[in-house]
Sequence to fold (353 residues):
Amino acid sequence: MLGIDRTAAKYTFTAAVVLLLLCLVYAMRVTLFIFILALLFAYLLSPLVNLLDRFLPGRTRTAALALAYIIFVAVTVLVGFEIGSRVVQQATQLVNYLPGMIAGLEKPSHNLPTNIDVMKEEVLDKVRQAVSTGAGELIASLPQAGMKALTAVSYLVYVAVIPILAFFFLKDARTMREHALDLVPGGPRRELLDDVMADVHLLLAHYMRALVVLSLATFTAYSIAFSILRVPFGVLLAALAGMLEFIPMIGPLVAVLTIVLVAGVSGINVLVILIFLAAYRLFQDYILSPHLMGRGVEVHPLLVLFGVFAGAEIAGVAGTFLSVPVLALVRILYLRIRKVRLAANPHPGRVTL
Fold:
């Protein structure tokens, strides 16, 4: 009769449970992403809620939450109307301006060598062919595009679901934390879980507030600079750069390339634009961003790039957006577990007799 190794069976069962959990996470990836967005939105509103909760009477946070939501919606509508209308107007102007822009580029320039003009004509021919091919493929795929559009519209329901979920996160955060701690008996493991949850709380709070401030700072600085330099479609480009700040590393690079391209074909001095962009990126990446992020989000740039590309392959835009906080979370877990092990064995390399 064959015997069963209990240790091997235990490890096999553990591996099977882990694989099953990973499969469940992948199957529920859309729902999990919505809950993560709601949690991040809750961290975004938590400073305002905490401030209002100090001044409003009552034992519950419901009044502070309701007032915070009213203020947020009012500010969003006001800013969206003032800036969004100009962004839409400039986007329409850019679309109408593109044919004339391409026609201007087709004209040979007497200030450039002949080889540059020939190369420019070849590039424009490639662009026209790509546009013609893309238009044909677009017409052929209109039915499938219509179905995808209906699917995208169905996702708009989550725009209303996310604030509702964030409301419950803000209202019952302390209770959820206590229930999570109650799952672990008292002792070193409970203390470790408490410390990890505290570190994750600070991480998400710093990360979300820093992203919003960096996005607003980028939009403000770019808008003022583009207005002074008289860059066409300045508000549109500034809004694009501000939104792309939410995508680590790749987003700002795409914004810079887009701005330089539009400025170049519009006849603006590209060198001045590049000097401003380089100076602002140095200020933001080495002064403003480290100050806002704090010590909880210290991730090496190479690791950030790896996380961005790996996240894009796994989950697209959502993966790139979540790559930095996930890497920072893994770093927190590693440091906490390492600290506990060092405390238990302060001299791992010393042999005691």
Summary: The longest helix spans residues 62-106. Residues 244 and 251 are 4 Å apart (CA to CA).
